[in-house]
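Give me structure tokens for this 114-residue protein.
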Amino acid sequence: MTTSETSRFVLLRVELVLEIDDADAVTKAALLRIGDDEAVPADERAQAEGAVTEDTSEALAYLVDPLDLVSEVPGVQLAQASWSTEPVDYDPDSPDWGIDEDDAEEDDEEGARG
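Here you go.
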């Protein structure tokens, strides 16, 4: 297949496990980012502030921007992005824990349907 026959779009999946060792610092940084964003209406700002105060993973979602991952890559323009965060039970020494575990289950389900 030549370059002209392939899609110009690439789905890049990135999964990270981050250890939060200072939840207060994460929350404060998220609150500052929300406060600095003049485009956010007051009612949405209050809702966002409540969410990041109650859940450190929500605070982290406000601080991580997918555009930051690709903005310095030459010849690439971000077309669309979505991301989410969730607390996980992480044990790097456990043979039962794997970062691709959910993806493997989804692949198995798709194979069974196909």
